[in-house]
Amino acid sequence: MLPASARLRRSEDFRLVMRKGARSGRRRLVAHVLTSDPAACSADAPVRAGFVVSKAVGNAVVRHRVLRRLRHLVAARLGTLPRGTTLVVRALPPAASASSAELGKDLDRALRKLGLLNGERGTAAGDPA
After folding, report:
1. Which secondary-structure segment (H or E) carries 38?
2. What burial class does residue 39 get, using C-beta atoms within 10 Å of its C-beta: 0-12 exposed, 13-18 middle, 19+ buried?
3. Which of 14, 17, 68, 115 could form a disulfide with 121 if both were Cys (CB 3.0 to 4.6 A apart)?
4. Angle at 30 between CA 117 and CA 69, to 5 degrees
5. Among 101, 36, 7, CA closest to 109
6. pLDDT, tens digit (0-9, with 9 covering 90-100), for 16-60
């Protein structure tokens, strides 16, 4: 479970990240990221995350399963993201039949492409993007 301070809740926050942030699409999900200026944000600025799982993904049971998997995957990666980062993960219909490992692989690739994992910028060598 994500801590309360790490949850994105207001529709305005989702809208801001999805419109103004960088985006990286994979087969099963799309990651939208908006990063604050490191000099402007305080040392205790939280990393926040939100999720969008539409009815196109499946019925309520399937959507909640996908949401739980994504929430678990993002919670494990919160500590690796830069302070002041706001992340929105949007699930695509193929996420319904994906395993947690496949979703994790797609999430890692999307974050790596956005330069948020391992301090890398752009696509890593050997990663087919």
Report:
1. none
2. exposed
3. 115
4. 80
5. 101
6. 999 999 999 999 999 999 987 655 556 677 899 999 999 999 999
Closest CA to 33 of 52, 19, 12, 54: 19
Rounded Cα–Cα distance for residues 14 and 51 (Å) = 9
Taking only the tens place, the pLDDT of each residue in 71-100 is 999 999 988 998 889 999 999 999 999 999
Q: Which long-range contacts (CB under 8 A, 24 or more apart) does 107-110 make?
A: 107/26, 107/29, 107/31, 107/70, 107/73, 107/74, 107/77, 108/77, 109/24, 109/26, 110/24, 110/25, 110/26, 110/29, 110/30, 110/31
Neighbours of 62 (CB within 10 A): 17
